[in-house]
Design goal:
The complex is a heterodimer of chains A (724) and B (750).
Chain A: H1 3-6, H2 17-31, H3 44-55, H4 68-79, H5 101-125, H6 130-141, H7 144-150, H8 156-175, H9 183-202, H10 206-225, H11 232-264, H12 277-281, H13 287-291, E1 303-308, E2 317-324, E3 339-344, E4 352-356, E5 377-382, E6 389-395, E7 403-407, E8 421-425, E9 442-446, E10 452-459, E11 468-473, E12 485-491, H14 499-509, H15 513-516, H16 519-532, H17 546-550, E13 556-560, E14 567-570, H18 574-599, H19 607-628, H20 644-665, H21 669-698, H22 705-711
Antiparallel strand pairs in A: 1-4, 1-12, 2-3, 3-7, 3-11, 4-5, 5-8, 6-7, 7-11, 8-9, 10-11, 13-14
Chain B: H1 2-9, H2 24-27, H3 31-40, H4 47-73, H5 86-98, H6 109-120, H7 142-167, H8 170-181, H9 184-190, H10 196-215, H11 223-242, H12 246-266, H13 272-304, H14 317-320, E1 332-333, E2 342-347, E3 354-361, E4 371-376, E5 384-389, E6 411-416, E7 422-429, E8 437-442, E9 454-458, E10 474-478, E11 484-491, E12 500-505, E13 516-522, E14 529-530, H15 538-555, E15 577-580, E16 589-591, H16 595-620, H17 627-651, H18 667-691, H19 698-725
Antiparallel strand pairs in B: 1-14, 2-5, 2-13, 3-4, 4-8, 4-12, 5-6, 6-9, 7-8, 8-12, 9-10, 11-12, 15-16
Helix pairs in contact in B: 1-17, 4-7, 4-8, 5-6, 6-7, 7-8, 7-9, 7-10, 7-18, 8-18, 8-19, 9-19, 10-11, 10-12, 11-12, 11-13, 12-13, 12-17, 16-17, 16-18, 17-18, 18-19
The chains are: A alpha+beta (724), B alpha+beta (750).
InterPro entries (chain B): ArnT-like_N (IPR003342), MIR_dom_sf (IPR036300), MIR_motif (IPR016093), PMT-like (IPR027005), PMT_4TMC (IPR032421)
GO molecular function (chain B): dolichyl-phosphate-mannose-protein mannosyltransferase activity
Main location (chain B): endoplasmic reticulum
Chain lengths: 724, 750
């Protein structure tokens, strides 16, 4: 323990100058004129608004991905002193002077720059030559698409950084296997887990890399279990350590991101309505302001607004108004001609309903208030028209299989009021549960017909003011959230003489609902909504299909200078894309060949060489496949930049295949030198393409129309040419 | 590997199969073999008991088959009205009997067999099958139901034989048979005119033949080997010919075959030529044979359906000419397109349809608010367009003018006949494909603007510059913007009546979706000429019908706000399907799995994963297992593994499907899951008995366990049988109902 007393403390450092050099050129390529263009470029318009909301601490809802990415961008804004005051509404809008463009763009650019030395490290750790490693880094350096994406406020470069970090740290961890449980072993293991969860935290697609790393780790662990030289306890320790670092730690970290996110965003904002009333009540200034001091338990005589628990198509409140259903619909069916009941997405005085005891006539709360309990029968009186909520055996206007819901008007025809509803508290803990504001989720079951009050989600035509249809559902198919309602606003009946007593009565029942919602409840609600919210899958002008990506059959115009023809495009280095595709195919072919021959006991490669080849393929080709193939199953709108993480892995595979071909397929010296020359020529071609496409990558040089026309190598590239 | 199985089995009442292709005893050679035989000898069953065993096997097989037939055929004619999807498949059976052409998203074999069964049992194809609940009255329907019930009954013996082959344990086989016999879901699904019993029959038969030929591995190229191998191929073709779900069993057989070949390749005692022979035999029996049969099914399908019917419009003009009764059959229409002709324009891309417009506008916010133009697969008056000159709005049918033919390169106007609006395009984004321009109907009574002008180009100009009906492939180029009229193939949302989007594509790519032909052509001033329409070849027809089916399948999207069944509902038996009846006075049949069976299956899956991983880890750690346990673990890992793979392959792909899903899609997976349950419990109980061996009664644990499982499922079937055989009376919510206590989940609505 006291070794340092006997020996001097010595720090030795190995500095790999090529890594340093690569870092420097990487930084140069990504950071050069970072503030140009000083205007909103493409998806910055989208991320920017969230950065502003972070600066203002306003809650927002974005279904596209977890919050870490947005938070990292916002960190840049925080460090740059951004106050959040900028209207992100148009691509190409000039930034005002309060927007710290450099610090906002710095983080993605740094991540992009560091990917270059990391590519070197990964190929080196995989056991390939210095030359191959250098090749991978240099290819990463001159890939136009990666440069474009890294120089803007976008998340792909950060995602690629964490993907590569996860792979690199796993490789480092794996190379420590002869010194298990040493500090560096632990360091790399935990770093793997953290990097994985960061990747997932930035975009959901990070999960593909996470699963890949998990898969490789599982195979390695399986071999470890088969190692009979290890004792059972030892094996158990190994398995547990990996489980904690690669399963538990990422989950905890991921939840932590949400914790920070929800802690930062405590003010109510534009997207509140997507969330449940209880969630909204936990935000400062939103629903909380209205609901503060509300009585908790709904009693007979309470005045309430009822919000549908289903957010589809929009959050809305149970509503009625003077207008009646038309006697005859367009398709010839008849209606009851009674007062319409709808669901209305805006706050309105017509959203108020009074809970009435069917046995009494009073519409105010008695003293003491008699709380309504689960399975009680109630009537709902519309506040403004004092008509009773009613349903009967008449087909609903748009959902003919269900019953019409109306507010009862007595036309003195043989159609009696059927206005009794049994209250069904869905999330009850006991059968004597009372009906609580915000917290209780209730269903209304019609006593006569056992239909259930339901939001059908269809928009009524003009006679219903395009509000949403509410029906009585007879065929109750399990519990669906469109049949569930919650009380949002609530006050006790305000008869004049009761008013003063009410004030006293309120105070004991009053609760601060925000304290009732734990972080985990908020997290799970937010996460669930994010995963289930339906994004519109309409096609975008620049959207593309996965098949277009491999062949680079598409481009995205990011930005056009307002006066000159300088422009930024997301365009890949054609030589790199083509050769990377070729290398992947070659890898697959060679592996099949080797596998078949090994099966017949013909060993073309020495064992360590073979293992190296397999591991490189599992991580690089596997990384490409895992980050690319799932897109074929996705139904959302896809863009070329979704391919970049897969491309990064493919670039790593390229030098691996090149070295393999050079070492094992070229038999004679002559072949090898020829091959070497070929590789040099190929790399110069890639550099040449980089230089030619550079104006579209950095967008700093205005080009003449003929030059632009000459750059349009494919018809499908949308290069913008000014007509005058 | 096979020796291990043989070794493990020695301890149980099982025969070392002396049969035609039993690998066990034969391959148990090698150093271990001798010791093994010695160890086994005390328990070796004598010749007499072996005979008894075989007799026992056959007797049990007969028993389970009998029981299965009895349950499936009991009250088969009830209810005497159309239930659920009988309305589709019965109708399609009738189409075969009437030989009218129709279109369906499933391949034809299942419906052909239904039609055949109906034909043989005296059904004349006159019943309409209009909607569920229609009474059959005097029509003979029991033959078709009986055929489905026959195949459905065979599932039980097939499962029995498969499990017997995999586990070599009679109790396990019996348990599997009981689980399926007593499952109300399988029973209900087998009793009606549906594709599912046919599909499940082929799946199970393929599985059994695959397992059988695996057991013949020791004697390759022998007669039984060939028999089972080709039978596998035949059943695969059958499964795929009924529904595309058959693809999953093909995957399973494919995986098994690849693993098998890989194993053979690694066997260095076999020459490469032998391996090549193996490969060739499998290619022949598992690829060539099924493909040939599958194609033959289609050939028969097209041969039988020779009359025009409701499915015509889904297919190309050339295809329709094959169907007698279609307007294109022996067509007699004016040959060359002239001004004033009334025409329909069909897209050359398969399954896009006719250029169509109707009296509805694009909704607000989607391009200009003008009349919609779509493509539509059905024949309809709204598909008719009039060809006019771009600058003259005269009536070309006036006999005082000479007839003028449309030439390649002419600028024309297409007026929609019903609404008198012109085909129009402009610089607005198309509704779905935003890279393209919107196409609308514009103008009043044929008077519009210059955006209505289209240049007509004939691509195959071997007939001169005129436009020949059906033969000429034409493109319509918008004069002002230079874009080409095409269809994106995307289905418009509700406002567009779920028809297909039409766009004007500014990128002049040569694709079929922007090429059209003229199909119907009416011009009273021109002589009608009989056209020998180019008959499509059989491969073209085959390809086309598959394209149409795939489009049809992906078009079955769940509607907004519709309550749909989710794949996770299925294994928990969360919700059933109403086959017949809603109210308490109706005769109600409710498709729901026997909850005891299904929940046992669910628990067994978890238990299997647990015990399987424990065993796998133990083996990987090199634990020395006694011979008996070794054999049991092999059954668990290999036999159980096959079944688990079957379950996974028939279940998880549904999570990826975008189309609308129903509860009955789970039943093929449920068959595998039930067999797995049987294998698992039998093995676990044996292990239990073995580990408690010295204790008294340990030997009977296995027997008692299996017996109680058998009795338990039988009793639960007794409880739930009204679901399948039908019930009348109050709903289960009502305490007076006999089913009152059985509504264990609130989501069951029977």
């Amino acid at each position: 323990m006291l070794e340092f007393l006997q020996r001097p403390v010595v720090v030795t450092a190995d500095v790999n100058l090529s890594v340093v050099a690569l870092t420097v050129v990487g930084l140069l390529s990504r950071l050069w004129r970072l503030t140009y263009p000083r205007a909103v470029v493409f998806d910055e318009v989208y991320y920017g608004q969230y950065i502003s909301l972070y600066m203002k601490r306003v809650f927002f809802f974005d279904g596209s991905g977890p919050p870490l990415g947005h938070m990292l961008l916002a960190l840049g804004g925080y460090l740059g002193g951004f106050d959040g005051n900028f209207v992100w509404n148009r691509i190409g809008a000039e930034y005002s002077s309060n927007v710290p463009v450099r610090s906002l763009r710095l983080l993605p650019a740094l991540a992009g720059a560091l990917s270059v030395p990391m590519a070197y490290q990964i190929v080196w750790e995989l056991g390939f030559s210095h030359c191959a490693a250098l090749g991978a880094a240099l290819l990463m350096l001159i890939e136009n698409a990666l440069i474009t994406q890294a120089r803007l406020m976008l998340l792909e470069s950060v995602l690629i950084f964490f993907n590569l970090l996860a792979v690199l740290s796993y490789l480092k961890f794996n190379s420590q296997k002869h010194r298990p449980f040493s500090p560096s072993w632990w360091l790399w293991l935990t770093l793997t887990g953290v990097a994985c969860s960061c990747a997932v935290g930035i975009k959901y697609m990070g999960v593909f890399t996470y699963l890949l790393v998990l898969g490789v780790a599982a195979v390695h662990t399986w071999h470890l279990i088969g190692d009979r030289a290890l004792s059972n306890v030892r094996v158990l320790c190994h398995v547990l350590a990996r489980a904690v670092a690669l399963l538990v730690l990422p989950v905890v970290t991921y939840v932590l991101f949400f914790y920070v996110h929800l802690t930062l965003l405590y003010r109510s904002g534009p997207h509140d309505q997507i969330m449940s009333s209880a969630f909204q009540a936990s935000l400062e200034g939103g629903l909380a302001r209205i609901t503060q001091g509300q009585p908790l338990e709904v009693a007979y005589g309470s005045q309430v607004t009822l919000k549908s628990a289903s957010g589809r198509p929009v959050p809305c409140w149970l509503h009625s108004h003077q207008s009646t259903y038309p006697i005859m619909y367009d398709n010839g069916r008849g209606s009851s001609h009674q007062q319409q009941v709808t669901c209305y997405p805006f706050k309105d005085v017509n959203n108020w309903w009074i809970v009435k005891d069917p046995g009494r006539h009073q519409l105010e709360v008695s003293n003491p208030p008699r709380p309504v309990r689960h399975r009680d029968v109630v009537q709902l009186v519309h506040g403004m028209t004092t008509r009773l909520l009613n349903t009967h055996d008449v087909a609903a206007p748009l959902s003919p299989h269900a019953q019409e819901v109306s507010c009862y008007v007595d036309y003195n025809i043989s159609m009696p009021a059927q206005s009794l509803w049994r209250l069904d508290v869905v999330n009850r803990e006991s059968d004597a549960e009372t009906w609580k504001t915000i917290l209780s989720e209730v269903r209304f079951v019609h006593v006569n017909t056992s239909a259930i009050l339901k939001l059908s989600g269809a928009h009524l035509p003009d006679w219903g003011f395009r509000q949403l249809e509410v029906v009585g559902e007879k065929l109750s198919r399990g519990l669906h959230e469109s049949t569930v309602w919650t009380v949002e606003e609530h006050r006790y009946g305000r008869s004049q003489e009761q008013k003063e007593r009410e004030l006293e009565l309120h105070s004991p029942a009053q609760t601060d609902v925000s304290r009732n919602l734990s972080f985990l409840a908020r997290f799970s609600e937010l996460q669930w909504r994010m995963l289930t919210v339906r994004s519109d899958d309409s096609e975008h002008k620049y959207s593309s299909t996965p098949l277009d990506w491999v062949t680079l059959d598409t481009s995205i115009a990011y930005w056009l200078h307002p006066r000159t023809s300088a422009q930024i495009h997301l365009l890949g280095n054609v030589v790199i894309w083509a050769s990377a595709g070729l290398a992947t195919a070659l890898y697959a072919l060679l592996t099949c060949w080797y596998l078949l021959r090994r099966r017949r006991n013909i060993r073309d490669l020495p064992e360590d060489c073979w293992l190296r080849w397999v591991l490189a393929g599992a991580l690089c080709a596997g990384g490409w496949a895992a980050n690319y193939l799932p897109f074929f199953l996705m139904e959302k709108t896809l863009f070329l930049y979704h391919y970049l993480p897969a491309l990064a892995f493919q670039i790593l595979l390229l030098p691996v295949v090149v070295q393999q071909v050079g070492e094992h397929l070229c038999r004679s010296e002559l072949q090898r030198s020829l091959f070497g020359a070929l590789v040099v020529a190929w790399y110069s071609a890639a550099c040449r393409v980089f230089a030619v496409l550079r104006p579209l990558t950095y967008g700093d040089t205005p080009l003449s129309p003929s030059e632009l026309q000459a750059l349009r190598w494919r018809d499908s590239w949308d290069i913008l040419i000014r007509k005058h | 590997m096979p020796s291990a199985v043989g070794r493990g089995l020695a301890g149980f009442e099982l025969r070392p199969r002396k049969g035609r292709c039993g690998p066990q005893a034969a391959t148990a050679a090698g150093p271990e073999g001798v010791a093994e035989v010695a160890a086994r000898s005390p328990k070796q069953p004598a010749g007499g008991s072996r005979c008894f065993e075989a007799a026992c096997r056959w007797a049990l097989l007969a028993l389970v088959t009998l029981l299965s037939f009895a349950t499936r055929f009991h009250r088969l004619d009830q209810p005497p009205h159309v239930c659920w999807d009988e309305t589709h498949f019965g109708k399609m059976g009738s189409y075969y009997i009437n030989r009218t052409f129709f279109f369906d998203v499933h391949p034809p074999l299942g419906k052909m067999l239904i039609g055949l069964a109906g034909y043989l049992s005296g059904y004349d194809g006159t019943f309409m099958f209009q909607k569920p609940g229609d009474k059959y009255e005097h029509h003979s329907y029991v033959g078709m139901r009986g055929f489905c019930a026959f195949l459905g009954s065979l599932l039980v013996p097939l499962a029995y034989l498969t499990v017997l082959e995999l586990s070599r344990s009679l109790p396990a086989a019996l348990l599997a048979a009981a689980l399926l016999t007593f499952d109300t879901g399988c029973l209900t699904l087998s009793q009606y005119i549906l594709l599912d019993p046919i599909l499940m029959f082929f799946i199970m038969a393929a599985m059994l033949s695959m397992v059988k030929y695996n057991s013949c591995a020791a004697r390759p190229f022998s007669a039984p080997w060939w028999f089972w191998l080709s039978l596998t191929g035949i059943n695969l073709a059958g499964a795929l010919g009924v529904k595309f779900v058959g693809l999953f069993i093909i995957l399973q057989v494919g995986w098994n075959t690849v693993a098998d070949l890989w194993h053979l390749l690694g066997d260095l005692s076999l020459s490469l030529v032998t391996v090549g022979k193996h490969l060739a035999a499998r290619t022949l029996c598992l690829v060539v044979l099924p493909l040939a049969l599958y194609t033959a099914v289609y050939a028969a399908h097209f041969l039988v359906l020779s009359k025009s019917g409701p499915g015509d419009g889904f297919f190309s003009s050339a295809f329709q000419a094959r169907l007698s009764g279609n307007s294109l059959h022996n067509a007699s229409i004016p040959e060359y397109l002239a001004y004033g002709s009334v025409i329909t324009v069909k897209n050359l891309q398969m399954a896009i349809g006719y250029l169509h417009s109707h009296r509805h506008l694009y909704p607000e916010g989607i391009g200009a608010r003008q009349q919609q133009v779509t493509t539509y697969l059905h024949k309809d008056y709204n598909n008719l367009w009039i060809v006019k000159k771009h600058n003259i709005n005269s009536d070309h049918l006036d006999p005082s003018f000479p007839v003028e033919f449309v030439q390649h390169g002419d600028v024309i106007r297409l007026e929609h006949k019903e609404t008198s609006r012109n085909l129009h395009s402009h610089y607005h984004e198309a509704p779905l494909t935003q890279k393209h321009y919107q196409v609308t109907g514009y103008g009043i009574n044929g008077t519009g603007d210059s955006n209505d002008f289209w240049r007509i180009e004939v691509i195959n100009r071997k007939h001169g510059n005129r436009v020949k009906v059906l033969r000429s492939r034409i493109r319509l180029i918008h004069v002002v913007t230079g874009c080409v009229l095409g269809s994106s193939g995307k289905v418009l949302p509700k406002w567009g009546w779920e028809q297909v989007e039409v766009t004007c594509n500014p990128y002049l790519k040569e694709t079929l979706s922007s090429v059209w032909n003229v199909e119907d052509h009416i011009n009273p001033r021109l002589p009608n000429i009989s056209l020998d329409v180019l008959q499509p070849s059989f491969p073209e027809v085959l390809l086309e019908s598959h394209m149409v089916m795939i489009r049809g399948n992906s078009g079955l999207k769940p509607k907004d706000n519709e309550f749909t069944s989710k794949p996770w509902h299925w294994p928990v038996n969360y919700q059933g399907l109403r086959f017949s009846g809603v109210n308490d006075t109706d005769f109600r049949v409710y498709l729901l799995g026997n909850p005891v069976v299904w929940w046992l299956n669910l628990a067994s899956l978890a238990l299997y994963l647990l015990s399987g991983s424990i065993v796998a880890v133990a083996v990987q750690r090199g634990a020395r297992l006694p011979a008996e346990v070794e054999g049991l673990t092999q059954v668990l890992l290999r036999g159980g593994g096959q079944l688990l793979l079957g379950w996974v392959l028939h279940y998880f792909p549904f999570f990826l499907m975008g189309r609308v899903l129903y509860f009955h899609h789970y039943f093929p997976a449920m068959l595998f899951s039930s067999m797995l349950t049987a294998v698992l419990w039998d093995t676990l109980l044996r292990l239990c008995a073995w580990s408690l061996a010295p204790a008294p009664l340990a030997g009977s644990i296995h027997g008692l366990g299996v017996l109680s499982l058998l009795l338990g499922t039988a009793y639960s079937f007794y409880l739930f049988h009204p679901l399948a055989y039908g019930m009348v009376g109050p709903l289960a919510q009502d305490p007076r109902s006999p089913m009152a206590g059985l509504r264990w989940l609130e989501s069951w609505d029977f």
